[in-house]
Amino acid sequence: MVAVGASPRKEWQQPASPEGASENTTMSYTWLKYHIVFSTKERRPFLTPELMPRLCEYLGGMIKTQGGHSIEINGPEDHIHIVASVSPTLALADCLRDLKPNSTNWIHETFPGLRDFAWQDGYSAFTVSPSVLSKVVQYVKNQQEHHKKVSFRDELAWLLKNHGIEFDEKYL
Q1: 3 has pLDDT over 50
Q2: How many domains does the chain have?
Q3: What range defines the domain where residue 118 resides?
Q4: Is position 27 within any domain?
Q5: pTM of the predicted model, to two decimals?
Q6: Has residue 20 been placed in a domain?
């Protein structure tokens, strides 16, 4: 019996390779750049000027260890923005599932006075096209200045609206 929409079984044949190409050539190319945003638990102002440079370096190292590449990491005292490529073999959720608890543990060990530090449970992530990558990187670099005028709640609402993501205001 043949399933609806299926053809009778035919022997599969390997398509001919381009001249000079090896039969084992892997041809996977990706452009997977993300703008990732998440806050400290209860938006507490834990991310001090003393902590941030070291935290950014740590997060960038973790992303590299996962097979990705950090492009820019920055944020004010209550949330962080990461512009990065993530390994195409790793789901973004898995990347963050590793990044957030490990960075929390690192903060607890490196800054004993921050034992209450924690990240919020969720995150927001947006893909970044090549045409706007430099603008997004500049936006992340200017976070401290930006947040002198705009709250994180307003910023997140703008990002979600700008990317066509429906949301409930009570969860911002």
Answers
A1: no
A2: 1
A3: 33-171
A4: no
A5: 0.84
A6: no
